[in-house]
Amino acid sequence: MMSAKFWAPALTACALATSIALVGCSKDQKDAKQAAAAQQMPPTEVGVIVAQPQSVEQTVELSGRTSAFEISEVRPQTSGVILKRLFVEGSYVHEGQALYQLDARTNNADLENAKATLNRQLANLSMLRVTENRYRQLVSSNAISKQEYDNAVTQVKLAEADVTSSRAQVKNAEINLGYSTIRAPISGQTNRSTVTVGALVTANQADPLVTIQRLNPIYVDINQSSAELLRLRKQLQQGSIDNSSNPTVKLKLEDGSYYPVEGRLAFSNASVNQDTGTILLRATFNNPQSELLPGMFVNAQIVQGVIPNAYLIPQVAVSRTPTGQAMAMLVNAKGQVESRPITTAGTQGQNWIVTQGLNTGDKVIVDGIAKVRPEQQVVAKPYQPQAAPSQGAQPAKQAEAKPEQKATSNT
Predict the structure, then answer these.
(1) Per residue, what are the HEC states of 266-289?
(2) Residues contacting residue 160 through CB under 8 Å, at least 6 positions apart
(3) How many angstroms separate the first and last alpha carbons of the chain?
(4) pLDDT of res. 411
(5) CA dihedral in degrees (120, 126, 127, 128; nearest 10)?
(6) Using CA atoms, how far apart are residues 134 and 390, in angstroms rounded to an integer?
(7) CA distance linking residue 230 with residue 306, whole number of Å
(8) In Å, how far are 5, 114, 123 from 120, measured between CA atoms?
């Protein structure tokens, strides 16, 4: 009995030590198995693209509005009552086409009066010339004084001046009579007429009778920030972009579609708007179908130049540090992940335009960036963009899902 008492605590302590040792051994074995399994796991697969230099167009997208190429506010140049409107509102009119007919009786009477005055002056001139010829013969024989002959010559010159004045009055009366028919000064699209038949109009009145707008070609007025213009000029001076060709402009319409015709920059304003800090650019577009109307809001994509030896990298492959530095993950020659800073110069579609930091043949990681870290061993495979599921496949998936839902409800 006594010996059993003394041996019980010792046996308990031995059993406890044995269990602790067994637990420790099992934990070490588990860690060893996990380490061995980790060593046996294959390297992570990543999707990469091979960097290839190319000439990339540098574009900038700016907002703008369309404006008519030519605008003419038609006003009467003589007074009168409108007898007829000779065009259809909203129609296209040609230069010189008659638009309104005024009551021309007053102007016609003025013309006849001017012609009568001219005829009287011509008759007077003819009589004075006869007298001047007679006096020339008499003065040679001293039958009249030299003073009388000089007076006759002066009267002829005064009569000739009166004739010239009367002819000018006839011409002016003919012009006023022509103004009785109001014609289109330019070709273009008309808008609503502001007057009707029977309205009294006056010469050079403030309100136009109708406005004509030439829509083909058409202007697009674009606002560009002065800071962006300075950056572009620096790139041109450094030779990082080439704009030897005339910059082209593409239009994105309000509904998101693109205008099928490219335009050309016509001019840029020589001063900066003090309120907005922008410079006005004006582009010209052909508009044969009058698809573009004045006042429309558009987005203009301007090709500012071509960047030689640039790289197009998907935006998902580029990250930013807290300081704003662009970074890309690459697979080096050893098959390890390498982080490298790069320099970007804008975007083109879904890609960054990279100008520095990449070399020809570099393998840039696009797919699997979140699963890797620098110096990790990986397997590089060509990046395959995931195609969007077709609409035709959706009903099939829904049809497959219905039996599963039905089976779940039955169980």
Answers:
(1) EEECCCCCCCCCEEEEEEEECCCC
(2) 125
(3) 65
(4) 32
(5) 110
(6) 109
(7) 17
(8) 165, 10, 5
Q: Can you tell me the distance from the alpha carbon of 260 to that of 250, in angstroms, rounded to the nearest whole number?
A: 8
Q: What single-letter DSSP state applies at residue 299? A: E
Spatial contact of 144 and 43, defined as CB atoms under 8 Å apart: no
In this predicted model, which residue has the larger pLDDT, 379 or 119? 119
CA angle 370, 373, 375 (to 5 degrees): 155
- The bridge status of strand 278-285 relative to strand 263-268 is antiparallel
Between CA 377 and CA 336 the distance in angstroms is 4
The dihedral region occupied by 142, where left means phi > 0, alpha psi between -120 and 50, and beta the remainder, is: left
For residue 365, what are its two tokens?
Answer: 């990681």
Give 352-397 pLDDT, tens digit per residue. Answer: 889 888 999 999 999 888 888 888 888 888 888 765 554 444 444 4
Residue with tokens 């920059």: 265
> Between residues 144 and 293, which one has the greater pLDDT?
293
Residue 374 near residue 334 (C-beta atoms within 8 A): no
What integer pLDDT is reported at residue 183 of this predicted model? Answer: 95
User: What crossing angle do the helices spanning 105-140 and 146-178 adopt, rounded to 10°?
Assistant: 160
The strand pair at 200-201 and 210-225 is best described as unpaired
Taking the C-alpha atoms of residue 351 and residue 58, their distance in angstroms, rounded to an integer, is: 12
pTM of model > 0.85:
no
Q: Which two tokens stand for residue 285?
A: 């577009």
Mean pLDDT is highest, among 158-172, 236-250, 373-387, for 158-172
